[in-house]
Amino acid sequence: xxxxxxxxxxxxxxxxxxxxxxxxxxxxxxxxxxxxxxxxxxxxxxxxxxxxxxxxxxxxxxxxxxxxxxxxxxxxxxxxxxxxxxxxxxxxxxxxxxxxxxxxxxxxxxxxxxxxxxxxxxxxxxxxxxxxxxxxxxxxxxxxxxxxxxxxxxxxxxxxxxxxxxxxxxxxxxxxxxxxxxxxxxxxxxxxxxxxxxxxxxxxxxxxxxxxxxxxxxxxxxxxxxxxxxxxxxxxxxxxxxxxxxxxxxxxxxxxxxxxxxxxxxxxxxxxxxxxxxxxxxxxxxxxxxxxxxxxxxxxxxxxxxxxxxxxxxxxxxxxxxxxxxxxxxxxxxxxxxxxxxxxxxxxxxxxxxxxxxxxxxxxxxxxxxxxxxxxxxxxxxxxxxxxxxxxxxxxxxxxxxxxxxxxxxxxxxxxxxxxxxxxxxxxxxxxxxxxxxxxxxxxxxxxxxxxxxxxxxxxxxxxxxxxxxxxxxxxxxxxxxxxxxxxxxxxxxxxxxxxxxxxxxxxxxxxxxxxxxxxxxxxxxxxxxxxxxxxxxxxxxxxxxxxxxxxxxxxxxxxxxxxxxxxxxxxxxxxxxxxxxxxxxxxxxxxxxxxxxxxxxxxxxxxxxxxxxxxxxxxxxxxxxxxxxxxxxxxxxxxxxxxxxxxxxxxxxxxxxxxxxxxxxxxxxxxxxxxxxxxxxxxxxxxxxxxxxxxxxxxxxxxxxxxxxxxxxxxxxxxxxxxxxxxxxxxxxxxxxxxxxxxxxxxxxxxxxxxxxxxxxxxxxxxxxxxxxxxxxxxxxxxxxxxxxxxxxxxxxxxxxxxxxxxxxxxxxxxxxxxxxxxxxxxxxxxxxxxxxxxxxxxxxxxxxxxxxxxxxxxxxxxxxxxxxxxxxxxxxxxxxxxxxxxxxxxxxxxxxxxxxxxxxxxxxxxxxxxxxxxxxxxxxxxxxxxxxxxxxxxx
Length: 941
Known about the structure:
Helix content is 45%, strand content 23%.
């Protein structure tokens, strides 16, 4: 069976058609296996490819597992193996390069497939890696009869197909993450509602059966679970559990009573929950699944504590294996506590009602029961005098008399005594008179008491044989319960750390402010404030200390605002501000300056002084007219502009900012495509010695400079600097630069030119956990480079982003023999004392200080100070941006070690480096200037 007819038969139209169809597949958001099958079908139909398969990399077993085609036709099983070992892949494959084997019949490691390849006429195989988030995660494998089927054009198409698969996998994973986030938020909202409804049931259920039935209904209807039921221990037989309420089970499915020590139940979750008093979660299957839960896949059993003892079980059945996450378990544990308390309260109330019914037979018995109640009880006789009161009543109202001393007092005088404890005595006096006038039972009447307490009051007319004999008042303190309800409510709308409104409440408040601004015709300012470099605070004093700083920062900001203004916490160290009723932008600028000034004052914590600043972005409504989410997003854009302009400042949103975001995103996509299409290029610029010639012809090394090859021109990094630190692209760009720079360096060594190379590394790549994996991989490919040496350069702002981590990484680089330098010195936030703490070899004086050094005395003084101090710290100084002989001579006289710039040489391709090095001759003036300076130094000693 022949597998192809040659790539020549595949027209350009077929290539473009294949790419178009693969692009359309991505837009359909297919699941990975379906996407694999669809891509295979396109390659076979459009390009005539045969025996195509896609497999996922199983790193635990180091095997490539075939995913597509999922179904293999009879007679083709031998050429579509279920798995292939990782050992067949070459190192280049793991760097994202296609692996072409022109003659697989004689390739070691494929003995098991050789008969199949001979039978199907396979001679050549290509494996194209599929990258997801920069990591090889799958492989696209195509077999052919001849190697010429895999032309350069075909390989490029297959790479693009693999890149499309990778984009599809990334999009699928992002969708899954988003879906999980939405599910988690919905789960939290549902959990809070479950707990809230349970608290309402406990508070307002008329009796225990209604409470138990309501709990089952809440779990099933609001929670959405398959079934719920409550069983309580049988008083006659403690080994038996009697079902008192259920929701979602078929009639008779569980029975009204079953024995816990019976073989069918002795080991299940319900029995364990009752015996241990702990929550039990089980996934019964097969013979272990009880008859009453035939379709459920998970059972949650919650023991019910009543009066300090396990008195029953609250069980919930669910269809999904993962139905009970951490949030659900915590909430259901709380619900079980509330339900147990509710049962206890209902039983206490039932006991009270039973005592009232028995009043006609035994007043003494009635008194004994009520005296032991935790609730305050008072009975008024028909002649309007106190006939009974208990100790709890005296304690609740702070009465000095004993219950016996209260008996016989007139009702008017007694009510007057109680009114002293009410928050609003007049209102409660009118309410009591209203209840007495109606003379009907009252349940759940809430009463506001002094001191922030809340009582629950019941009123019951006592009738015997239809004749009114008296009136009973029942009052209990539910302050704790009300506080609990308030805490649940607050958790939904307020931040725990700062007490500020959270994102959910912010949008509600912002919408209200926006509507008022429209009605009043005033300006509404919406701001987003972010603390600068707050991560270093958490690194220095821990997250608990960081929370204290956040709380104090929010207090300082609130001190600058009016009572009507809103400050909310969006998350992390980011806050939102809503300021209404402004007259002008100048008024907003003044407010912004006050807030920033308040945050500059030192924070005292744990005996240390911490200094912070903030960046804040603003937008003004109705000058900016989107919805509330758009206002916050625009303020966020403005905040990031403030950060880019140097931090510790404010910025006002302009439409151009959004256009700039689109431009930046477009550049990210261009760089990503350039990496895939090998359109990135390195040029090399020499660095030369001033004082002496320790290197080859006085050349200290070559700096690798990245360029984007954009058809007609080479684009410099200044136009895509933001991409170099992009979370998804920083590491792929860094790996490309490392590999290409060391490859060129090794080629110079082979041509007899031993010149070190230095490489610019982005902060994100430097601090990436896999940074040294990348270093080791490239050094393994080019081992000769370490004999000459190579270095890395990081920007001045790099180490300050995470000083502790940067220090560890730099020390490890130096231990491995890798030189480390600090680029663009003087433009960021580092200082010479900061540099002293880092194990760096050299610093680069930024070209902004070099450019005007002959005519600008300030730049001359800065350059001289940096060079002198760096020498004292044993650090080499390299001046960059040298464009004239006058600049070079002046720097030589100041004692600078090395120079770099257009006057020495413009960046050049790697092939031109050996010739330039051979022809470089340092200016004669440098030697005399260095000797003159050394003489001056010797004379001053």
